[in-house]
Amino acid sequence: MQRRTLRLFKYLVWPLALGLTACGNQLDTAEVESAIQADIERQGRRLSLKAVLCPGDVSHQAEAYFRCVGEVEGGGTFTINVIQQDSQGTVTWEVPNSKALLNLPKVEDSIQQELSQAYSQRAQIDCGSATYRVNQPGDRFECQVVGGVTTDTRTITAVLVSIDPGGNLSWQEQAAAPGASLQAIVAPGSPSPTGTAAAPQAKPPAAAPTTMPKSTAVTGPTGRTVNRPYVRGDDD
Predict the structure, then answer these.
(1) What is the mean pLDDT of residues 20-37?
(2) Which tens digits make up the pLDDT trace of 137-173?
(3) What is the dihedral of CA 51, 55, 59, 63, to 10 degrees?
(4) pLDDT value for 24
(5) pLDDT tens digits, residue range 185-235?
(6) What is the spatial distance between Cα 131 and Cα 105, in angstroms, rounded to a whole number?
(7) Is this prediction's pTM over 0.85?
(8) Residue 211: CB atoms within 10 Å
(9) Is 174 within 8 Å of 158 (Cβ atoms)?
(10) Which of 27, 44, 97, 222 could pair with 58 as two cysteines, CB 3.0-4.6 Å apart?
């Protein structure tokens, strides 16, 4: 069965500019927590957070970095990286992909790149309007291939994304042959759905997924890189 593993652990920068006030030289992190939680829930698919917790002793300092932790209702935590854009309390934040929370734009990006490389066609993937989704082992969801990707014998119209017990994602193409209904693409001798990814039939194999290196820098929304030490848990 045509199946691929997604490279999840990348950053999605989602700026949230807040003009925050604070007592003395301390940033009002309680307001940061409230604003981030509300924004993630608003952009999520049936997503409810138990809490967002940030350090309480953050001083005003342009380009200073600190980290908050989000907790999903029902269990699971994820990292939120926050950068101060100036000394007045304006911040932006980013949510790395994790085994607690899925970043759907990055899922779309991974599938688009691999489909485009495998079939030498531009592929546009749409996993829905939500930005975030709980990473639930055993869950499956479908993303549409906008306009389809056409080969000699079929048109790939969707991909089915599956989450294994470890929270890792893989996907398989869904295609319709001329005059036929939608079906999963099955190649002779393919492994079971839990097996290793198979190369596309009559196509050269796509490059094997690579593990993203641990970042030692954070890129702000202006494109400026802010260097910082690697913090354990950035891709947990």
Answers:
(1) 80
(2) 999 999 999 999 998 889 999 999 999 999 999 999 9
(3) -70
(4) 61
(5) 433 333 333 333 333 444 444 444 433 333 333 333 333 333 343 344 445
(6) 6
(7) no
(8) 8
(9) yes
(10) 27
pLDDT at 36 over 80: yes
Residue with tokens 């929304």: 221
The secondary structure of the chain, three-state, reads CCEEECCCCCEEEECCCCCCCCCCCECCHHHHHHHHHHHHHHHECCCCEEEEECCCCCECCCCCEEEEEEEECCCCEEEEEEEECCCCCCEEEEEECCCCEEEHHHHHHHHHHHHHHHHCCCCEEECCCCCEEECCCCCEEEEEEEEEEECCCCEEEEEEEEECCCCCEEEEEEEECCCCCCEECCCCCCCCCCCCCCCCCCCCCCCCCCCCCCCCEEECCCCCEEECCCCCCCCC
Q: Scanning the structure block, which residue is given the tokens 């950053």? A: 11
100: CB partners within 8 A, 6+ apart: 70, 72, 76, 77, 78, 134, 135, 167
Contact assessment for residue 132 and residue 150, using Cβ atoms and an 8 Å cutoff: no
Pairing verdict, β 169-176 and 77-84: unpaired
d(CA 91, CA 84): 4
Residue the block writes with tokens 């639930």: 136
